[in-house]
Specification:
Elements: H1 2-32, H2 40-48, H3 84-87, H4 92-101, E1 106-107, E2 116-122, H5 130-139, E3 145-148, H6 150-155, H7 157-165, E4 169-172, H8 185-203, E5 209-210, H9 219-227, E6 231-233, E7 237-238, H10 247-255, E8 263-267, H11 277-292, E9 296-297, H12 300-304
Parallel strand pairs: 1-6, 2-3, 2-8, 2-9, 3-4, 5-6, 7-8
The structure holds zinc ion (ZN).
Amino acid sequence: MNTKRLAPLVWLLILCLGLTACGGTGKRDNEDGRHQGAGQAQSKAREDDGGNGKIGGNGKRSSARQRADGSAVPRWKTLAGGSESEARVLKPMDNYLLQRKYPNVFVLHAPEDENRIALTFDDGPDSRFTPRVLDVLKKHNVKATFFVMGSRVKGVPRVARRIDDEGHVMGNHTYWHPKLWRQSAGRIRWEALETDHAILEVAGYAPKLFRPPYGALTEELLTQLSAMNYTVVGWNVDSLDWKQLPADQVEANVVSNVRPGSIILMHSGGNWDQDLSGMVEALDRIIPRLKEQGMTFVTIPELLGVPKSK
Ligand SMILES: [Zn+2]
């Protein structure tokens, strides 16, 4: 008799335990992004992103993607490897050595025999600074090269299309901006190809140009990028705008270091909380000053004599 009375209770208990287990698993999967079903590569990318433990898709690290009011920042507005000021490693000698060893693959500047220079803008497109950069370039009738992130091209395709419509060139700057030197060959390939596809969708070509996040290269990475038929583009003038400097300092950093053939590094976007207003103001002064010095602004394909597409 006791057993008969207990039986429904036992079944109820089993049912509850089962539901709890399913709910728990679902929550874990959600945080890891593993339930997404968007393919193994995407899941892998979500797991790998971050690297410095501060920014990324993992629930435990989400505080770095929350605004002061607690609202969430969309993932494409963050740089997976951390903001430039946190993560950039300055190793110019290493890059110069690599450039000498792989002169047909990796470029830091053009020959100095012509007064031609190239402005390059990393980490866009975004809706805050990229349109302002485009306005300034249009005002001075200058064409530039934008090393864009695939996730941001998808995030603001209208701005990406504007870059192309106004005659600028786009290069590949990875999909999520991870620290490539920490990634597997498979992940590097995914980052590059996914970004190629994003650019192809908005601009109609797969880019020939590639710039690694933080300008950080290893010989192994360079060899892989070469096998994927990219021309890897560094720079020899750093505006240091990623330090959120005032306009005067950004202007001085560029104007005092430019020489014929220079490739100038600037940013048309940043981590979601970075302020690049000083860069925009400086750009408006840098262009006329360098034109007065006899410099002509060209895109990277024009400067190097390479096609913009693969
Ligand atoms: Zn970057």
